[in-house]
Amino acid sequence: MGDEFVDFLKRALRGDAPLSDPADLAWFLAAYARTGLKRVEEVGDMQTLATLRSALEEALGLRFDDEDGEHFFRSALVQTLFYGVFAAWVFWSEHQPAQSSQRFTWRQAQWTLSVPMVRVLFQQLATPANLPAGLDEVLDWTDDVLARVDRDLFFRRFEAAEAVQYFYEPFLQAYDPQLRRELGVWYTPPEVVHYMVDRIDRALRSELSLPLGLADPLVHVLDPCTGTGSYLTAVIDRVVATLTEQGGNGLVAAEVKQAALSRIHGFELLPAPFVIAHLKIGIALARLGVPLDAAAGERASVYLTNALTGWVDDDTRLTLPFPEFVSERDAADAVKRDEPILVVLGNPPYNGFAGVSGREEGGLVEPYKAGLAAWDITKNKLDDLYIRFFRVAERRVAEQTGKGIICFVSNSSWLGDPSAVIMRERLLTEFDSVTVDHLNGDSRETGKKTPPAIRIHPSSPRRSTRQASPAGWRSACSCVPPNTRIPLRACGIGISGARTSEPSSRRPPPTRTLALATSRCHPRRPIGFGCCGGHPARVMRPGRRSRSCVPWIRCSDSMRTAGSR
């Protein structure tokens, strides 16, 4: 019995009963999306699909290779279409009373999203004249099932902004488990996000003499791997809080909106999380009373683009078939080349996707490889995606803006891997201070396992350097109460010994680090490394290696010994 027939029977048996359980709605939407994908696959190599494919490949610097790449391309488009309808319904529900007689239709979605590039995808995929696959019929079924939702009960489970983000994973799992395994999760635990944003805000005030922190109009922020927009919405929340604390008046909302339009930037490679990020920011602004005006061309500064390309002028770019794609690419390139980015933050990806090959600027990580021969290193592990994002951020902040902050959560291999020695040296040379919150625990090499919790403690003003316990991070964090124990199962952090919500194929190594680097345009500091666990420090030079050494957490004129944080 085929899967499509089974889906049909399940839909028939469930009849027209009202829906309130998110799992039930996720199943219905995923079932319709699977039907839509089957129809798209049955039409074969239509010109519309070929045009969309070549346009996306050129705009994003990707190649959808072989059968895996073709499946990824079509599956990603269809799930973007159907999840975009759900996200637009959530946004519509924010402005319609639950008892309203008005009914949402999928044809409203492309206008609700306020992103011209996404409107092109809707028009090309869902219009029978462009793609005679019958997707409009399946989308009409989706309208019917959304009309059956008891919105009062449904939104008791989720806030609207949370529904757009957290509903996505069960939908994707039901829609295409293989794609779900490829993509992993696209959101970072909110406790981690707010911790990082709070750290950045304090560093801007204390290290770069910007008393308003992230709320300062001179601070341009970039998340080069935006995903569902968790970091950007957290930055917006921090800006709102700061301006309100400063005796905010009626202009606070307008200032926040201007920040979202012009100086809080995000890049995302995949359409579905890109749509989610736009919806979350749109909902946040609407709740402040300053909704985006699509008719006036207002949109959040989040772009569908490859963050590893476009940072330098490229005269070889092809002409794209859709002007909306051209505008998207040009706007993203303008952010990369012209905006004075002061903060780069986020959670870089660890792996690529089967059948998808990404393009990057030639020699992007070569500065991290230059000189490895002097260390007798012939093989390296410097082509991981997260290493490339470190290099992009370092170049943008240290070499172009000349000052600023990088704050990434990543795996920890760059701290101790011998082949990352030049990378560590560059970071210590380019930045005035480098702080690493190290969660320790490396069951693959040492057998040491981190207990399944993060403990955030109040910092001690008597200690200039604080040593973190293996169980967590040590810092003052205004967004989480002192001595709070956050279960890792809830956070989904890939720590050995704790279950996570990330699939094994995309799960990072069992140790993660939070790295924060600050540059104040000061003279270069001396280079040094300190060993894990507070062992005596050593200055590392070519010809001498230590697998256990990690960067100093702070570079200063009086190089004090420090363990990893």
TrEMBL record:
Feature: compositional bias, Basic and acidic residues: 439-448
One Pfam family matching this protein: N6_Mtase
Record keywords, A-Z: Methyltransferase, Transferase
Record has Ubl conjugation as a keyword: no
Spans annotated as Disordered: 439-470
EC number annotated for this UniProt entry: 2.1.1.72
Keyword tRNA-binding: no
Classification via SUPFAM superfamilies: S-adenosyl-L-methionine-dependent methyltransferases (SSF53335)
Gene3D superfamilies the UniProt entry points to: Vaccinia Virus protein VP39
InterPro entries in the cross-refs: DNA_methylase_A-5, N4_N6_ade-DNA_methylase, SAM-dependent_MTases_sf
Annotated ranges, domain DNA methylase adenine-specific: 167-278
Catalysed conversion reaction: a 2'-deoxyadenosine in DNA + S-adenosyl-L-methionine = an N(6)-methyl-2'-deoxyadenosine in DNA + S-adenosyl-L-homocysteine + H(+)
Gene Ontology MF term list: DNA binding; N-methyltransferase activity; site-specific DNA-methyltransferase (adenine-specific) activity
GO BP term, pick one: methylation
Protein name listed in UniProt: site-specific DNA-methyltransferase (adenine-specific)
Species of origin: Mycobacterium xenopi 4042
